[in-house]
Amino acid sequence: MTAIDLLLTDCNVATMDGPGVGEITDAAIAIAQGRIVWVGPRRDAPQVATTERLDGQWVTPGLIDCHTHLVFGGTRVGEWEARLDGESYESIAKRGGGIRSTVAATRAASDDELRSSAQTRLDALIAGGVTTVEIKSGYGLDHTTELRMLRVAGELQGARVVRSFLGLHALPPDVARETYVRDMVEIVLPAAHAEGLVDQVDAFLETIAFNTDEVTALFRKAKALGLPVKLHADQLSDGKGAALAASFGALSADHVEHTGADGVAAMARSGTVAVLLPGAFHTLRETKLPPIDEFRRAKVAMAVATDCNPGSSPMLSLPLAMNFACVRFGLTPSEALAGVTRNAAAALGMAHEIGTIAAGKRADLVAWEIDRPAELAYWLGLTRATRRWIGGTAT
Ligand code: NIG
Ligand code: FE
């Protein structure tokens, strides 16, 4: 075995590797060169000089927020008030508000303003146990601002960042539809990719956003560039988005409240993860539940994310998203924990690197002062994370 740099000991571990939460009580974890090299009962642990006793705390994989729109200008608090007064999300979008109003605020913001507001939000997610975050573009909707958003996302500190190109998020004002889609597909995505700013490609398939042909053109380009895809699918209506995503071998189909049996079957065949976003469901006061039982029966992996964005989900706590997934969508606390660890890693194409506590994985870990893993999803707004390690380094 490689020389061990650190042994975390006197802890209970939810490995998320194996049945349930893969629990090992009175355990230890050995770390070398940024990776986990051994995990098991403390009595079997290798002898090493540098140990850290955790006094019976629980250790989980670092949490992974696999769907956020963390970089944006302004807020949409006025629209939120209008929605509380009864106006719908679609109606606000149709009168030029919604995503377009965040686009105006994002274009007007300087890089420093975008960076500092996004860092404040990322710090809140990190306090809730996040060690990896996915961040989308999609509030620039022009060449310059889409790339600016992705650069800013890459400059944030304190967590691993995975970047998604979301040029097809909304049609900006004063641009012809065909020209816009063609430019995003043929010019902006390749330029962002050439600069190394894109890990994956996302789009919003919806009656108020883009259609199947437009998303297909984008996904073909993504595939030609060797980039994995994912999709905002079937959020407000059954647009057959999950099936479209699956036909491109997408890493994930996200939202999926309105996904039908055909979509679930297609996702099962392609190994596409269902990313559940209960913060958006809650904020938009949706009533149509995602087909959780069908996902379970078909063995479609379910992830849970905050969808942090200024319009439909101003949510900055992944444990709170876990609670909503349990209370509103009927996930078990173990499923919710798998949803922010193992399955969230799969939704980012990183299951070989992060998401479980197992030999060979990166040592991204969180220690929690809790009595049992279900307590992570239990509190509404209390954070019990005490320590975090990214690649074996305490942060
Ligand atoms: O994931 N559905 C589309 N995109 C976001 C909402 C973005 C916004 O309203 O600003 C979502 O919910
Ligand atoms: Fe989203």
How many angstroms separate the termini?
26 Å
Average pLDDT for all residues: 97
Ligand types: N-(iminomethyl)-L-glutamic acid, fe (iii) ion
Instruction: Please tell me what the overall shape is.
Output: globular
Query: Rg from C-alpha positions?
Result: 21 Å
- Which structural class best describes the helix and strand composition? alpha/beta
Percent of residues in beta strands:
15-25%
How many H/I helices? 15
Total E-strand runs: 16
Give the proportion of residues in helices. Answer: 25-40%
Question: What does the main sheet amount to?
Answer: 8 strands, mixed
Give start-end ranges of low-pLDDT stretches.
Answer: none
Task: Give your account of this protein's structure.
The chain has 15 helices and 16 strands. By secondary structure, the protein is an alpha/beta fold. Strands 1, 2, 3, 4, 5, 14, 15 and 16 form an 8-stranded mixed β-sheet that branches. The protein has a 4-stranded parallel β-sheet with strand order 6-7-8-9. It has a 4-stranded parallel β-sheet with strand order 10-11-12-13. It is globular. The structure holds N-(iminomethyl)-L-glutamic acid and fe (iii) ion. The site of fe (iii) ion (FE) has 5 residues, from loops.
